[in-house]
Amino acid sequence: MFPGIDTGTFAGPPAATAVFTTVLTEGPVSRVALARRLGLSSAAVTKAARPLIDLGYLHELAATERSGPGAGRPASPLAVRAEREFFLGVKITADEVIGVVCDLRAQVHASARRPLDDPDIDAVLTEIDRLADDLLDAFPGDRTRVRRLGLALSGDIDRGIGLVRYSPFLHWRDVPLGRLASQRTGLTVTVENDVKALTAAEHWFGEGVGAESFALVTVGTGIGCGLVVNGRLVSGSYGVAGEIGHLTVDATGPDCHCGGRGCVESIAGTDAIVAQARDRTGRPDLTINEAVALARGGHEQVRGIFARAGGAIGCGIAAVANLVGPTRIVVSGEGLAAYDLFDSHIRASFERQAFGAAARCPLSIRPLPFEEWARAAAAVSIQSLVVP
Ligand SMILES: [Zn+2]
Prior knowledge:
Blueprint: H1 14-26, H2 31-38, H3 42-54, E1 58-60, E2 78-80, E3 86-92, E4 96-103, E5 108-115, H4 121-138, E6 146-153, E7 156-158, E8 163-167, E9 172-175, H5 177-185, E10 188-193, H6 194-205, E11 214-219, E12 223-229, E13 232-233, H7 264-268, H8 270-281, H9 288-296, H10 300-324, E14 328-332, H11 339-353, E15 363-365, H12 370-383
Helix pairs in contact: 1-3, 2-3, 4-5, 6-12, 8-10, 9-10, 10-11
Bound molecules: zinc ion.
Protein backbone atom coordinates (compact mmCIF):
# COMPACT_ATOMS: atom_id res chain seq x y z
CA MET A 1 0.00 0.00 0.00
CA PHE A 2 0.98 3.59 -0.37
CA PRO A 3 2.09 5.98 2.30
CA GLY A 4 1.56 4.02 5.38
CA ILE A 5 -0.37 6.56 7.33
CA ASP A 6 -1.38 3.68 9.54
CA THR A 7 1.79 1.64 9.51
CA GLY A 8 4.34 4.44 9.25
CA THR A 9 6.04 2.69 6.37
CA PHE A 10 6.03 3.06 2.64
CA ALA A 11 5.94 0.03 0.43
CA GLY A 12 4.60 1.52 -2.77
CA PRO A 13 5.92 0.68 -6.21
CA PRO A 14 8.62 2.96 -7.67
CA ALA A 15 6.16 4.51 -10.15
CA ALA A 16 3.93 5.67 -7.29
CA THR A 17 6.93 7.18 -5.50
CA ALA A 18 8.01 9.00 -8.66
CA VAL A 19 4.51 10.30 -9.39
CA PHE A 20 3.98 11.49 -5.83
CA THR A 21 7.40 13.15 -5.57
CA THR A 22 7.01 14.97 -8.88
CA VAL A 23 3.52 16.27 -8.10
CA LEU A 24 4.58 17.24 -4.58
CA THR A 25 7.66 19.19 -5.59
CA GLU A 26 6.61 20.66 -8.90
CA GLY A 27 2.95 21.48 -8.28
CA PRO A 28 -0.01 20.50 -10.41
CA VAL A 29 1.15 18.28 -13.27
CA SER A 30 -0.98 16.69 -15.96
CA ARG A 31 -0.82 12.94 -16.49
CA VAL A 32 0.56 13.56 -19.97
CA ALA A 33 3.39 15.68 -18.56
CA LEU A 34 4.04 13.13 -15.82
CA ALA A 35 4.24 10.30 -18.33
CA ARG A 36 6.66 12.27 -20.47
CA ARG A 37 8.79 13.38 -17.50
CA LEU A 38 9.00 9.96 -15.86
CA GLY A 39 9.25 7.84 -18.98
CA LEU A 40 6.05 5.99 -18.11
CA SER A 41 2.99 5.17 -20.20
CA SER A 42 -0.20 7.12 -19.51
CA ALA A 43 -1.76 3.90 -18.27
CA ALA A 44 1.12 3.41 -15.80
CA VAL A 45 0.72 6.95 -14.48
CA THR A 46 -3.01 6.44 -14.01
CA LYS A 47 -2.41 3.14 -12.22
CA ALA A 48 0.28 4.68 -9.97
CA ALA A 49 -1.87 7.70 -9.12
CA ARG A 50 -5.05 5.79 -8.31
CA PRO A 51 -4.15 4.67 -4.74
CA LEU A 52 -2.73 8.13 -3.99
CA ILE A 53 -6.03 9.68 -5.00
CA ASP A 54 -7.99 7.05 -3.04
CA LEU A 55 -5.93 7.78 0.09
CA GLY A 56 -6.50 11.50 -0.31
CA TYR A 57 -2.88 12.53 -0.97
CA LEU A 58 -3.53 13.63 -4.55
CA HIS A 59 -6.58 14.99 -6.26
CA GLU A 60 -7.55 15.98 -9.75
CA LEU A 61 -7.98 19.65 -10.50
CA ALA A 62 -10.68 20.80 -12.89
CA ALA A 63 -9.62 20.26 -16.48
CA THR A 64 -7.92 23.41 -17.71
CA GLU A 65 -5.60 22.36 -20.48
CA ARG A 66 -5.65 20.34 -23.64
CA SER A 67 -2.77 18.14 -24.57
CA GLY A 68 -2.66 19.69 -28.07
CA PRO A 69 -4.75 21.33 -30.76
CA GLY A 70 -7.64 19.10 -31.67
CA ALA A 71 -6.64 16.59 -28.98
CA GLY A 72 -9.34 14.60 -27.23
CA ARG A 73 -10.67 15.30 -23.78
CA PRO A 74 -8.82 17.97 -21.77
CA ALA A 75 -6.24 16.84 -19.23
CA SER A 76 -6.98 17.16 -15.50
CA PRO A 77 -3.75 18.04 -13.68
CA LEU A 78 -2.91 16.12 -10.53
CA ALA A 79 -2.21 18.17 -7.40
CA VAL A 80 -1.26 17.43 -3.81
CA ARG A 81 -3.87 17.79 -1.08
CA ALA A 82 -1.65 19.84 1.21
CA GLU A 83 -3.89 19.35 4.26
CA ARG A 84 -4.07 15.58 3.96
CA GLU A 85 -1.36 15.27 6.60
CA PHE A 86 0.63 17.62 8.82
CA PHE A 87 4.17 17.30 10.11
CA LEU A 88 6.07 18.57 13.10
CA GLY A 89 9.60 19.83 12.54
CA VAL A 90 12.02 20.66 15.37
CA LYS A 91 15.48 22.17 15.22
CA ILE A 92 17.59 21.42 18.30
CA THR A 93 20.27 23.96 19.20
CA ALA A 94 22.54 24.08 22.24
CA ASP A 95 20.13 26.23 24.23
CA GLU A 96 16.74 26.06 22.52
CA VAL A 97 14.31 23.83 20.62
CA ILE A 98 12.42 25.55 17.80
CA GLY A 99 9.42 23.88 16.18
CA VAL A 100 6.83 24.31 13.44
CA VAL A 101 3.79 22.50 12.07
CA CYS A 102 3.82 22.15 8.29
CA ASP A 103 1.40 20.78 5.74
CA LEU A 104 2.36 18.39 2.99
CA ARG A 105 3.75 21.23 0.91
CA ALA A 106 5.92 22.46 3.77
CA GLN A 107 3.84 25.55 4.45
CA VAL A 108 4.11 26.58 8.11
CA HIS A 109 0.83 26.66 10.09
CA ALA A 110 2.14 27.16 13.64
CA SER A 111 5.46 27.68 15.43
CA ALA A 112 6.80 27.62 19.00
CA ARG A 113 10.08 27.63 20.95
CA ARG A 114 11.27 26.33 24.31
CA PRO A 115 14.54 26.99 26.11
CA LEU A 116 16.92 24.09 26.63
CA ASP A 117 18.81 24.30 29.90
CA ASP A 118 20.33 20.84 30.03
CA PRO A 119 21.95 18.82 27.22
CA ASP A 120 21.16 15.53 28.97
CA ILE A 121 19.26 13.28 26.58
CA ASP A 122 16.33 12.81 28.92
CA ALA A 123 15.95 16.56 29.50
CA VAL A 124 16.08 17.21 25.74
CA LEU A 125 13.43 14.53 25.10
CA THR A 126 11.20 16.14 27.72
CA GLU A 127 11.49 19.53 26.03
CA ILE A 128 10.83 18.04 22.59
CA ASP A 129 7.70 16.36 23.96
CA ARG A 130 6.51 19.62 25.56
CA LEU A 131 7.26 21.54 22.38
CA ALA A 132 5.22 19.03 20.38
CA ASP A 133 2.31 19.65 22.78
CA ASP A 134 2.75 23.42 22.44
CA LEU A 135 2.75 23.12 18.66
CA LEU A 136 -0.37 20.96 18.59
CA ASP A 137 -2.10 23.41 20.93
CA ALA A 138 -1.19 26.29 18.61
CA PHE A 139 -2.11 24.36 15.46
CA PRO A 140 -5.57 25.39 14.22
CA GLY A 141 -6.11 22.27 12.08
CA ASP A 142 -7.00 18.65 12.71
CA ARG A 143 -4.34 17.32 15.11
CA THR A 144 -5.23 13.71 14.40
CA ARG A 145 -3.59 14.30 11.03
CA VAL A 146 -0.19 14.84 12.68
CA ARG A 147 1.65 11.53 12.80
CA ARG A 148 5.23 12.42 12.04
CA LEU A 149 8.03 14.44 13.60
CA GLY A 150 11.27 15.49 11.96
CA LEU A 151 14.24 16.40 14.17
CA ALA A 152 17.26 18.30 12.89
CA LEU A 153 20.49 19.02 14.72
CA SER A 154 24.11 19.56 13.81
CA GLY A 155 26.58 16.73 14.00
CA ASP A 156 27.14 13.28 12.58
CA ILE A 157 23.70 11.77 12.07
CA ASP A 158 22.70 8.43 10.56
CA ARG A 159 19.27 9.31 9.15
CA GLY A 160 18.55 5.73 8.12
CA ILE A 161 18.44 4.49 11.71
CA GLY A 162 17.78 7.78 13.53
CA LEU A 163 21.12 7.65 15.33
CA VAL A 164 23.09 10.66 16.54
CA ARG A 165 26.63 9.35 16.21
CA TYR A 166 28.21 12.56 17.45
CA SER A 167 26.76 15.90 18.49
CA PRO A 168 29.56 18.27 19.49
CA PHE A 169 27.38 20.89 21.16
CA LEU A 170 25.18 18.45 23.12
CA HIS A 171 28.18 16.18 23.83
CA TRP A 172 26.25 13.12 22.66
CA ARG A 173 27.74 10.01 21.15
CA ASP A 174 25.70 7.15 19.68
CA VAL A 175 22.32 8.32 20.95
CA PRO A 176 19.36 6.50 19.25
CA LEU A 177 17.39 9.75 19.16
CA GLY A 178 14.80 8.56 16.62
CA ARG A 179 13.74 5.57 18.70
CA LEU A 180 13.78 7.48 22.00
CA ALA A 181 11.80 10.44 20.63
CA SER A 182 9.30 8.08 19.03
CA GLN A 183 8.75 6.30 22.35
CA ARG A 184 8.33 9.62 24.13
CA THR A 185 6.00 11.35 21.65
CA GLY A 186 4.20 8.44 20.01
CA LEU A 187 5.06 9.93 16.60
CA THR A 188 7.02 8.43 13.72
CA VAL A 189 10.35 10.23 13.98
CA THR A 190 12.97 11.13 11.39
CA VAL A 191 16.38 12.48 12.45
CA GLU A 192 18.66 14.34 10.08
CA ASN A 193 21.72 16.55 10.20
CA ASP A 194 20.39 20.11 10.19
CA VAL A 195 22.36 21.25 7.17
CA LYS A 196 21.32 18.22 5.14
CA ALA A 197 17.73 18.86 6.22
CA LEU A 198 17.95 22.45 5.00
CA THR A 199 19.44 21.24 1.73
CA ALA A 200 16.65 18.69 1.33
CA ALA A 201 14.06 21.40 1.99
CA GLU A 202 15.66 23.64 -0.64
CA HIS A 203 15.75 20.69 -3.04
CA TRP A 204 12.05 19.82 -2.67
CA PHE A 205 10.45 23.13 -1.77
CA GLY A 206 12.94 25.96 -2.43
CA GLU A 207 15.64 27.22 -4.78
CA GLY A 208 16.81 23.73 -5.60
CA VAL A 209 13.59 22.41 -7.19
CA GLY A 210 14.55 20.93 -10.51
CA ALA A 211 18.26 21.74 -10.06
CA GLU A 212 20.65 18.98 -11.07
CA SER A 213 23.28 20.13 -8.61
CA PHE A 214 23.61 22.75 -5.97
CA ALA A 215 25.28 23.26 -2.61
CA LEU A 216 24.22 24.98 0.56
CA VAL A 217 26.89 26.26 2.94
CA THR A 218 26.07 27.39 6.47
CA VAL A 219 28.23 29.68 8.55
CA GLY A 220 27.89 29.84 12.32
CA THR A 221 28.79 27.70 15.32
CA GLY A 222 29.66 25.06 12.76
CA ILE A 223 30.54 25.44 9.10
CA GLY A 224 28.27 23.01 7.27
CA CYS A 225 27.50 22.05 3.69
CA GLY A 226 24.73 20.11 2.01
CA LEU A 227 25.18 18.80 -1.51
CA VAL A 228 22.76 17.84 -4.24
CA VAL A 229 24.43 16.03 -7.14
CA ASN A 230 22.57 14.69 -10.18
CA GLY A 231 19.31 15.68 -8.49
CA ARG A 232 20.00 13.72 -5.30
CA LEU A 233 21.03 14.77 -1.83
CA VAL A 234 24.44 13.25 -1.16
CA SER A 235 24.83 11.61 2.24
CA GLY A 236 27.88 9.49 1.52
CA SER A 237 28.42 5.97 2.74
CA TYR A 238 29.01 7.13 6.30
CA GLY A 239 26.53 10.00 6.36
CA VAL A 240 29.13 12.74 6.52
CA ALA A 241 29.55 13.81 2.87
CA GLY A 242 29.94 17.58 2.49
CA GLU A 243 31.54 18.26 5.87
CA ILE A 244 33.50 21.24 4.61
CA GLY A 245 33.84 22.51 8.17
CA HIS A 246 36.46 19.81 8.64
CA LEU A 247 38.41 20.28 5.46
CA THR A 248 41.97 21.18 6.35
CA VAL A 249 42.90 24.63 5.11
CA ASP A 250 46.03 25.03 7.25
CA ALA A 251 47.85 21.83 8.14
CA THR A 252 49.79 23.68 10.84
CA GLY A 253 46.70 25.53 12.08
CA PRO A 254 44.86 25.24 15.40
CA ASP A 255 43.54 21.98 16.82
CA CYS A 256 39.88 21.36 16.02
CA HIS A 257 37.26 19.93 18.38
CA CYS A 258 36.87 17.06 15.89
CA GLY A 259 40.41 15.89 16.65
CA GLY A 260 41.77 17.21 13.36
CA ARG A 261 44.02 20.21 12.80
CA GLY A 262 43.56 23.41 10.83
CA CYS A 263 39.95 22.63 9.81
CA VAL A 264 37.80 25.46 8.40
CA GLU A 265 35.76 25.31 11.59
CA SER A 266 38.82 25.59 13.84
CA ILE A 267 39.48 28.99 12.22
CA ALA A 268 36.03 30.25 11.24
CA GLY A 269 33.49 28.66 13.59
CA THR A 270 31.93 31.05 16.08
CA ASP A 271 33.74 29.46 19.04
CA ALA A 272 37.06 29.69 17.22
CA ILE A 273 36.51 33.35 16.39
CA VAL A 274 35.60 34.13 20.00
CA ALA A 275 38.64 32.25 21.33
CA GLN A 276 40.98 34.12 18.99
CA ALA A 277 39.37 37.48 19.82
CA ARG A 278 39.72 36.83 23.57
CA ASP A 279 43.34 35.94 23.05
CA ARG A 280 44.13 39.06 21.00
CA THR A 281 42.26 41.49 23.23
CA GLY A 282 43.17 39.93 26.58
CA ARG A 283 39.47 39.95 27.50
CA PRO A 284 38.56 36.43 28.68
CA ASP A 285 34.81 37.14 28.78
CA LEU A 286 34.48 38.67 25.30
CA THR A 287 31.34 37.49 23.45
CA ILE A 288 30.86 37.02 19.72
CA ASN A 289 28.65 40.13 19.60
CA GLU A 290 31.39 42.16 21.29
CA ALA A 291 33.96 40.76 18.87
CA VAL A 292 31.75 41.79 15.95
CA ALA A 293 31.32 45.27 17.46
CA LEU A 294 35.10 45.65 17.94
CA ALA A 295 35.76 44.59 14.35
CA ARG A 296 33.14 46.95 12.97
CA GLY A 297 34.63 49.70 15.12
CA GLY A 298 37.96 49.22 13.36
CA HIS A 299 39.92 47.03 15.81
CA GLU A 300 42.57 45.82 13.38
CA GLN A 301 43.50 42.59 15.13
CA VAL A 302 39.88 41.49 15.52
CA ARG A 303 39.15 42.49 11.93
CA GLY A 304 42.05 40.26 10.98
CA ILE A 305 40.41 37.30 12.73
CA PHE A 306 37.25 37.74 10.64
CA ALA A 307 39.35 38.18 7.51
CA ARG A 308 41.19 34.92 8.17
CA ALA A 309 37.87 33.21 8.93
CA GLY A 310 36.38 34.48 5.66
CA GLY A 311 39.45 33.22 3.81
CA ALA A 312 39.06 29.75 5.34
CA ILE A 313 35.34 29.64 4.45
CA GLY A 314 36.09 30.73 0.88
CA CYS A 315 38.65 27.91 0.58
CA GLY A 316 36.04 25.42 1.76
CA ILE A 317 33.47 26.71 -0.73
CA ALA A 318 36.01 26.60 -3.54
CA ALA A 319 36.79 22.98 -2.67
CA VAL A 320 33.08 22.19 -3.09
CA ALA A 321 33.00 23.98 -6.45
CA ASN A 322 36.15 22.18 -7.62
CA LEU A 323 34.98 18.74 -6.52
CA VAL A 324 31.31 18.82 -7.44
CA GLY A 325 30.75 21.76 -9.82
CA PRO A 326 27.34 22.86 -8.51
CA THR A 327 25.18 25.16 -10.62
CA ARG A 328 24.97 27.56 -7.69
CA ILE A 329 25.92 27.78 -4.04
CA VAL A 330 23.66 29.23 -1.35
CA VAL A 331 25.47 30.63 1.70
CA SER A 332 23.50 31.06 4.90
CA GLY A 333 23.53 30.53 8.65
CA GLU A 334 23.45 32.51 11.87
CA GLY A 335 27.05 33.65 11.37
CA LEU A 336 25.79 35.73 8.45
CA ALA A 337 24.73 38.40 10.91
CA ALA A 338 28.38 39.47 10.62
CA TYR A 339 28.55 38.89 6.90
CA ASP A 340 29.89 42.40 6.25
CA LEU A 341 33.07 41.29 8.04
CA PHE A 342 33.43 38.04 6.04
CA ASP A 343 31.97 38.83 2.64
CA SER A 344 34.88 40.22 0.63
CA HIS A 345 37.30 37.71 2.16
CA ILE A 346 35.04 34.75 1.33
CA ARG A 347 34.68 35.94 -2.25
CA ALA A 348 38.38 36.75 -2.72
CA SER A 349 39.48 33.40 -1.39
CA PHE A 350 36.79 31.55 -3.37
CA GLU A 351 37.86 33.22 -6.60
CA ARG A 352 41.52 32.52 -5.88
CA GLN A 353 41.02 28.85 -5.08
CA ALA A 354 38.20 27.88 -7.47
CA PHE A 355 39.66 26.16 -10.50
CA GLY A 356 38.99 27.69 -13.91
CA ALA A 357 35.31 27.97 -14.79
CA ALA A 358 34.28 26.80 -11.31
CA ALA A 359 34.87 30.40 -10.20
CA ARG A 360 31.82 31.41 -12.27
CA CYS A 361 29.56 29.52 -9.87
CA PRO A 362 27.38 32.22 -8.27
CA LEU A 363 27.35 32.52 -4.49
CA SER A 364 23.94 33.64 -3.25
CA ILE A 365 23.65 34.83 0.30
CA ARG A 366 20.44 34.50 2.28
CA PRO A 367 19.78 34.82 5.99
CA LEU A 368 17.56 32.09 7.45
CA PRO A 369 15.85 32.32 10.85
CA PHE A 370 15.74 29.21 13.04
CA GLU A 371 12.08 28.61 12.08
CA GLU A 372 13.37 27.85 8.58
CA TRP A 373 15.59 25.15 10.03
CA ALA A 374 12.59 23.71 11.86
CA ARG A 375 10.63 23.77 8.61
CA ALA A 376 13.51 21.88 7.04
CA ALA A 377 13.19 19.21 9.74
CA ALA A 378 9.50 18.92 8.83
CA ALA A 379 10.44 18.67 5.14
CA VAL A 380 12.62 15.64 5.89
CA SER A 381 9.66 14.10 7.68
CA ILE A 382 7.54 14.75 4.56
CA GLN A 383 10.24 13.09 2.47
CA SER A 384 10.13 10.08 4.77
CA LEU A 385 6.69 9.33 3.31
CA VAL A 386 8.40 8.26 0.14
CA VAL A 387 12.14 8.19 0.87
CA PRO A 388 12.65 5.83 3.83
ZN1 LIG B 1 37.64 19.61 12.47
